[in-house]
Automatic annotation (TrEMBL):
The keyword Nucleus applies. CDD domains: Tudor_SGF29_rpt1 (cd20393), Tudor_SGF29_rpt2 (cd20394). Keywords: Nucleus, Transcription, Transcription regulation. GO terms for cellular component: nucleus; SAGA complex. The keyword Transcription regulation applies. Residues 1-30 have a biased composition (Low complexity). It is found in: Nucleus. This is SGF29 C-terminal domain-containing protein.
């Protein structure tokens, strides 16, 4: 075969490869646009449904409130609360609250679906060439961590105290719905096994000998399921990998945010010593809970031990539930 024919074949091969790459890139771009368009239409539909749900929920709320007030009025008037009529009123009030709670669940499920579709739009909008790049700025890291915390689902459980209406009835409905392990401050089960992709706090030793709790992701699970390989969430490509990490040196992060209104027992109490993600970093440090979330989207207020301040403690920082875990003191 002559040199000229060989060069022609190589040139043809390069053109074919370039053409194939362009075709694949074009196909990926088209698929991303389709996903974005379809999700935006689905979000619009869900938002319209939520508007109708809001009206229905308000009407049902009024019905439940009136039923409960009627029971309270009957009780205050010293009527016979053990009569058949009273029992019927109580059963009817319970049925109304059941209906109201079902409406809340339906609306919350749609809100969760909207959130999921929004996250898919964000992921589809990303440049595929940027997927393996590290977070080169503190701002980029902060946005990435905020996205992680925002996408964490909220767990709704029983409501044991407070001054809201129908407390007894709502508690009755939810008393068997205790928060599961890894909901807010609830620890992992004793037999918990991490899986590839799980986000964790990992206790590691860096190249310079410093030991820290870092925000990491499980990259490999050993057959005995007591050892893991992990990768620093903020590491540069090819770096920040730690191997053969003991289960003892790993704290799984929460898989749900606890709703403060319905399961306050799944929150760390004020003045509790915790490990929390220090703002603008990917490391967990010892801190004290100054105040707790009041609603599902709220953060903890954390005061960190920090020798760079004269008092030895930092100002209060807001830290999402996902990045606050029980303090664990490990010595080398």
């Amino acid at each position: 075969m002559t040199r000229s024919s060989t060069n022609s074949e190589c040139l043809s091969s390069r053109r074919s490869s370039s053409s194939l790459s362009a075709t694949l890139q074009s196909s990926t771009t088209t698929d991303s646009k389709d996903i974005i368009t379809q999700n935006e239409l689905s979000i619009q539909k869900l938002l319209l449904e939520l508007q109708d749900d809001l009206k229905k929920t308000k009407d049902q709320y009024n019905i439940s409130r009136d039923a409960w007030l009627a029971i309270q009025q009957q009780k205050s008037s010293n009527e016979n609360t053990t009569s058949q009529s009273s029992k019927q009123n109580m059963n009817q009030a319970l049925a109304h609250v059941h209906n109201e709670m079902d409406m809340y669940r339906t609306a919350l499920a749609k809100i969760a679906q909207v959130r999921k579709l929004q996250i898919e739009i964000v992921n589809a909008s990303k440049n595929p060439n940027d997927t393996n790049r590290s977070h080169t700025t503190r701002r980029g890291l902060a946005d990435f961590l905020s996205h992680m915390a925002y996408s964490l689902k909220i767990w709704y459980g029983n409501e044991q105290n407070g001054t809201n209406r129908c407390i007894t009835i709502i508690y009755f409905l939810f008393k068997n719905n205790a928060p599961p392990p890894l909901c807010g401050a609830m620890p992992a089960a004793s037999n918990h096994i991490c899986h590839v992709g799980d986000r964790i706090a990992g206790f590691v030793e860096s190249d310079d000998g410093d030991e820290n709790w870092i925000l990491a992701e499980i990259s490999n699970v050993y057959p005995n399921r007591t050892k893991y390989d992990i990768v620093d969430i903020d590491a540069e490509p090819g770096k920040g990998r730690y191997y053969n990490i003991s289960k003892r040196h790993i704290i799984p992060l929460p898989q749900w945010r606890a709703c403060p209104l319905t399961c306050p027992q799944a929150l760390f109490a004020p003045r509790t010593i915790v490990l929390a993600l220090y703002p603008q970093t990917s490391c967990f440090y010892k801190g004290i809970v100054e105040s707790i979330p009041r609603v599902g989207n709220d953060c903890y207020s954390i005061i960190f031990e920090d020798s760079s301040y004269n008092s030895g403690f930092s100002p209060e920082f807001d830290v999402p539930q996902m990045f606050v875990v029980a303090h664990k003191d490990l010595k080398k």
